[in-house]
């Protein structure tokens, strides 16, 4: 990632004063010091209940940590300095396990909060929350805000990104509940929301509208998986409204070949959209959903090094400038990870107050 690893960070965000730090696994980092950043990745995607009862033959927790340390260290060697792990509830988030990786790698890891479901939530959420049998405030809001303000599961690691999902079923009642909770958490904390969208179902525009109606400025939304699409009109509209689009699945050639993903990025760069795109892989060291043996056969380039080794050279050959790459890999991620104005409005008093719990 030589072009993107330029130390010329002068084009970065100007707002870097105290209180504007980005939470990482090893503490707060100035946004201007994040460097080349992959904004949509995973380290371990699992399923704790399945793993407990029907362990996957390719999953060895101890070996997995060693493997992740090796992969992330190699990634640092290619110039990447920060990786955002968007593994939230529903994907088997295990922050303690990730902390064991983070303490041994030279790059910054950022945790996320949110809920990954394309349709329904587990039964717990059916009985908890306003108007439900057990009652109380919506636990989703409590979970998200606590993860951001206090830290995750007693680890002290605070989430630096929110994540929601809208896929083929659209904004189902439970998906709406997750997105509403994320919007409330955003309003209270200022943390940016990244989405999993499905451009073929036009869920990106729907997410922008739904979140916008609940107080989330489009500038604080990354419409993820936009790179799965070659529908330039849809992508331009998302960016013209203020959002950043995630060209974040390089290597997922079983969905769309990288050559075509690159062509879309180049077309939009030529139109001046460098400040509205971010690049990533949505890769993982281990995912039970598509395990390593499957990936090796069906998506051999779907790994952390694909951008540095294959995609950036393709972008450069197609005319992307060093400034374009710097913007997509350094400037835009720093802008989006920097705490937003909502955090200022509420912090420290209101934002730090515990959620009132009705009797
Ligand atoms: Zn993902």
TrEMBL record:
The modification N6-carboxylysine is found at residue 163. Transmembrane segments: none annotated. Keywords: Hydrolase, Metal-binding. It comes from the Bacteria. This is Phosphotriesterase. SUPFAM superfamilies: Metallo-dependent hydrolases. Residues 1-26 are annotated as: Disordered. PANTHER family: PHOSPHOTRIESTERASE-RELATED (PTHR10819), PHOSPHOTRIESTERASE-RELATED PROTEIN (PTHR10819:SF3). The keyword tRNA processing does not apply. Residues 1-14 have a biased composition (Low complexity). It comes from Pseudonocardia humida. Belongs to the metallo-dependent hydrolases superfamily. Phosphotriesterase family. PROSITE patterns: PHOSPHOTRIESTERASE_1, PHOSPHOTRIESTERASE_2. InterPro entries: AryldialkylPase_Zn-BS (IPR017947), Metal_Hydrolase (IPR032466), Phosphotriesterase (IPR001559). Pfam families: PTE. The keyword Protein transport does not apply.
């Amino acid at each position: 990632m030589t072009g993107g690893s330029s130390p010329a960070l002068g084009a970065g965000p100007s707002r870097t004063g105290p209180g504007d730090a980005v939470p990482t696994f090893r503490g707060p980092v100035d946004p201007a010091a994040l460097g080349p950043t992959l904004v949509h990745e995973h380290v371990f995607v699992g399923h704790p209940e399945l793993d407990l009862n029907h362990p996957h033959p390719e999953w060895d927790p101890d070996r997995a940590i060693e493997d992740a340390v090796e992969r992330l260290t190699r990634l640092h060697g290619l110039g990447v300095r920060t990786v955002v792990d968007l593994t939230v509830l529903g994907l088997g988030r295990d922050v303690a396990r990730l902390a064991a990786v983070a303490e041994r790698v030279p790059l910054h890891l950022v945790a996320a909060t949110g809920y990954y479901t394309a349709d329904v939530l587990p039964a717990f959420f059916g009985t908890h929350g306003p108007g439900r049998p057990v009652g109380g405030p919506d636990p989703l809001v409590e979970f998200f805000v606590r993860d951001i303000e206090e830290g995750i599961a007693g680890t002290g690691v605070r989430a630096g990104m929110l994540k929601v999902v809208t896929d083929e079923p659209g904004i189902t009642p439970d998906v709406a509940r997750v997105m509403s909770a994320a919007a409330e958490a955003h309003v209270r904390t200022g943390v940016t929301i990244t989405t999993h969208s499905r451009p073929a179902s036009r869920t990106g525009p729907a997410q922008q509208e739904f979140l916008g109606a609940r107080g989330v400025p489009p500038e604080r939304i990354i419409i993820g998986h936009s790179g799965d699409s070659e529908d330039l009109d849809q992508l331009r509209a998302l960016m013209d409204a203020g959002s950043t689009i995630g060209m974040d699945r390089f290597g997922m050639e079983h969905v769309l070949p990288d050559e075509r993903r690159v062509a879309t990025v180049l077309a939009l760069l030529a139109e001046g959209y460098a400040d509205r795109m971010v690049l990533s892989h949505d890769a993982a060291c281990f995912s039970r959903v598509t395990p390593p043996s499957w990936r090796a056969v069906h998506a051999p380039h779907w790994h952390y090094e694909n951008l540095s080794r294959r995609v950036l050279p393709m972008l450069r050959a197609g005319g992307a400038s060093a400034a374009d790459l710097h913007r997509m890999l350094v400037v835009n991620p720093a802008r989006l990870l920097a705490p937003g104005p909502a955090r200022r409005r509420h912090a420290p008093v209101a934002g730090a107050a515990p959620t009132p719990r009705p009797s």
